[in-house]
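PT: before anyone asks, these are the final sequences, not the draft ones from last week. 939 residues across everything. Please model them as a single complex and drop the result in this thread when it's through.
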Amino acid sequence: MSATDRFERVPSLPSSTRDRQSLVLTLLAGSIALTLLTPMLWVVLQASQVPLDRILEILLRQETLDIVLNTVVLVTAVTIGSVLVGVPLAMLTVQTDLPFRRFWTVLAAMPLVIPSYIGAFAFISATGQGGAFTDILAPIGIEQIPEIDGLVGSVIVLTLFTYPYVYLTTRASLLSLDGRAIEAARSLNHSRLSAFRRVTLPQLVPGIAAGALLVALYTLSDFGTPALMQYDVFTRMIYVEYDAWRLDYASIFSLLLVGMAIVILAAESRIERTDEGEAYVNRGTDRPGTISLGRWKGPALAFCSTVALLALIVPPAILLYWLGRSTGGIGGSYEFQWIYAWNSVYVSSLAAGVSVLAALPLAYLSARGESRWASLPERSSYVGYAVPGVVLGLGLLYFTLHYVDSLYYTVDILVFAYVVRFMPQAVGTLRSSVLQTDRKLVEAARTLGHSSLSAFRKVVLPLVMPGVIAGAALVFLTSMKEMAATLLLRYPGFETLATYIWLVRSSADYGDAALPALVLIGVSGLSMLVLLWRGYDVQE
Amino acid sequence: MTDHDSDFDGGASGGRETSSRRRFLAASGVTAVGAVAGCLGGPGGNGDGSSGDGEMNEFSLGSFQGSGPFVGSRPEPSGTSIRDLPNLSGTFGVALGGGEGGLYIDLFEELEEIYPDLTIEHRTAPSTDLANTIKQEADADNVQQDIFLSVDAGSLGVVSEAGATQQLSADAISSVPSAFKDDERNWVGVAGRARAVPYNTNELSASDVPSTVQEFPDTLGGSMGWAPSYGAFQSFITAMRLIHDDETAIQWLEDMQNAGVETYADEFQVSQAVADGNLNAGFANHYYALRVKAWNDDPPIELAFTEGDAGALVNVSGAAVLTGADDTAAATDFVRHLLSAEAQEFFATRTYAYPMIPGVQPVGDLPTVDELDAPDIDLTELSDRGGTLDVMREAGLSV
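LR: through. Structure below.
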């Protein structure tokens, strides 16, 4: 590997202590990973009830093949789209003299606060005949906006609301980029483009891949957007079978979905491994110089504004348009209460806290472990992220009722569900942070007589703090939006913003659903701002 | 965000026979004064709900009817009034399936207004979710809630099959025709919905609509719309499979497609397209046409019903007492309240559903449930929706 490996074994430590510590870490990470996989027990049990010939028949029929293809197309397109939006935004906000850079830095991350199902709803109700856009734009002579739906609609919406994953991870990589290498390349007569391609890009690839992984897995497991856009993918198939009381079939499709997730995970691992493995290590503070945009300033600003307009202005504007309008629903007056907002914030915060704590051992082992299996607990934690909420919810229900029934009808089971579903996001950010910390610093602390725990606390923790905060923020935001598992697992009287939106949405009265949707966006947005301003990499 | 669960849909159970139209003492809502009849409930344990004791406030029928467009000229409902039922008190845990826009929650709030000592703790989720939850709870012998109120009768069948229900007393559900309750009394229908053929009155007259589903491909098929991904449509196909067989259903689906039927996302859209003149007719649940009427100014849409076949299927939302209820009698009294004249009036005027007791009329100029010629099938068997998915796929429909 690299030069730092030579410092790996600290002579002053007896190897038995090292072994014991690494054994403890491995056991800890392993048991966390197993806990996260417990809901899958039910899925496997259900699937195992289907005879093999029936499984083959289901897997090989034309409809299944079509849906696999549809899903692959959607995941690929959204992932590429997110990279095309997220990477330029990251570069513009980190490396250039873009006007109002700090403003755009925060804004570019904000679409994460908008649930993609709300985004999809906004675009559907805004476009096409009789859409809100047509109403709004009619006075200025625009008669019709084509309807956005199907594959195109799904790709646009999912890209707009998931690209921040790529933006955030790419940004983190850019911030730790070694500027001296670029200068060296430039001094060797490489053009700026060529220097980017040969020096910058290879260093960015693992960061981009980490974000793209989250985008791909999110797209794989999302039900709301393709369902609203009427584009047939795996998750819809799972719901159709689930709704027809064929849990066994739904489980088979869920396992197939997990299979696809494993392929994506393996692909991402390969991308990361082909890299030198040292790109993340922050050796110094020599950041590359700022690139002057010159005449590209206008187009750059136009690009940033367009993304912000589509992702951040359109959905709230549409919601405001519906607010207070009656749209032919059948009524029902289940009133909004602010306690729902508090409930959402409360469980999501707990989920964020627990996720970060549980993610740390996995991330640390994966980043620092010497065995080739060290990444296994970290990789396996992504399984929960790829499974649709309702399947995961039922799996969790089964496990809880049979093995830890004291959890049932408590807030804890919701926290558990969110941790299983969303912790991988924290694992990802933490892992890159751990990789970025220079091992030599830990070794130095150890040689100065600090115990490994103390060295971790005094040296590693402060350095990984940005990763901790970013991970917590991502888990918090996705937990705020979670609907399917929450509907299954909450106890009577406990409503979150998302379940309340479901409740009023079923009356088909958009006016009623607009208020809680706006509150959800508002509360998530405020939390995001606090997080971004407090610690995460805004002050570079 | 599941869209398939947003409305009445799905189905199962109960054998359809001719209903005997029993008349109960006419409790003209506003004037009758509550007399506690047949106090069956004992005190509930563990903070469970109880009946028979507790206070009762005065109320008006109007608060149950709401102010919908079809309320104006309704006859007084007859049947057992809430005033004649044991008072409810304590806490009832209700698993409430489906959304219906919090409408059923409105009914709970009405009841809580009437009984100051009553608290209804509801857990609301898609019916399928709740049925699966209750089934798992029953497997672990840990059923939490007292009552399951589902917009999908198939869910009730699943729950009673899992052994999670307690038998209702014959007396409590005697006002409901036997077609709309379980033979073993594990659940009872509280509101019905009929399959119907909405048609555009500018294009067609009632006599143009065939009286059997099988005639549609050769007659109106080319100018019709349907929503095959919608649960109620799938129950309709399931009924066709039960009455005939899989092959007949496949053939019919293929013939309709060859005739040029148009596909919509849901049955409200089908009904709206009929009213807008984009379709001559469609397949939809009856209440969608009423919603279209309620929100448009005299749209050219009316309903026709086929006779004695799948096209005239009447499916129900229903209630069951769960094994989680310690006081079965009190929980049963809760179900009696759902079958009271006032609650039935609520279902009829607020959700446009078919009332389940003969003393309450459906809204608008709908035929009564007895006048509909519903097919003679066991509603529990409608839960075989999986087989219907296979049939629809076989016929080349994407479901």
